[in-house]
Amino acid sequence: MKRFFDLIASLIFLVLLLPIFILVAIAVLIFLGSPILLRQTRPGRHCKPFVCYKFRTMSNAVDSQGSLLPDADRLTSFGKILRATSLDETPQLFNVLAGEMSLVGPRPLLMEYLPLYTPEQLRRHEVTPGITGWAQVNGRNAISWEQKFALDIWYVDNRSFFLDLKILALTALRIISLRNISQPGIATVSRFTGASDKREPYV
Q1: Contact predicate 28/44, CB 8 Å
Q2: Can you give the pTM of this predicted structure?
């Protein structure tokens, strides 16, 4: 039922959001240039890699040595608006259509985080990653990594169709309120460097 709902709902969202997609794509091209989409390899269900799509929110500005500047220096005002409204995540509806993502589930993070999880935290990959999730409606980027992962595991253990509907409704409210977009003093989100109680590496 979840997969059927994802297919129907993502198709409806894509049709409804098509004019916004076009406007955002044009705006990204004007303010940030090409490419319009950011493509990153992320771990999916059972840690299987897939290419995740997002609208770009950062410039490609580099320092005198040719290295990318910190996120805070590359995140544009336009990019902040995309992140605050979650419009940068909307291309992931195509990932949902492909079955690589779900509308609701733990967020797909970086591949390099996999060896840093505890065995319990790694359980977040027992389900298909989502565009939004239980952690996103319970603090988003304003809570710690450990809190996020605990919320992700709670979702894995308690997931249901009605919980997904609740999360989607709460997501809409959180977007309207523009709350918990980033951590205090951090332009985007701090990097996960490993849990203090890490016991076994991912293999």
Answers
A1: no
A2: 0.86
Tokens of 58: 């950062």
Pairing state between β 130-132 and 37-43: unpaired
Q: DSSP string covering 7-39, please?
A: HHHHHHHHHHHHHHHHHHHHHHHHHT-S-SEEE
Q: Which residue has the tokens 């109680």?
A: 197
Task: Report which of 25, 41, 44 is spatially closest to residue 33, judged by C-alpha positions.
Answer: 25
Burial of 56 (0-12, 13-18, 19+ CB in 10 A): buried
CA distance 81 to 37: 16
Tokens of 21: 């997609």
3-state secondary structure of 64: coil
CA 146, CA 124: separation in Å to the nearest integer? Answer: 12
Q: Rg of the Cα trace of the chain? A: 17
The model's pLDDT over 5-42, given as tens digits with 9 standing for 90+, comes to 999 999 999 999 999 999 999 999 999 888 999 999 99
CB atoms within 10 A of CB 196: 6
Give SS3 for 96: helix
* Rounded distance between C-alpha atoms, residue 115 and residue 156, angstroms: 20
Contact predicate 141/183, CB 8 Å? yes
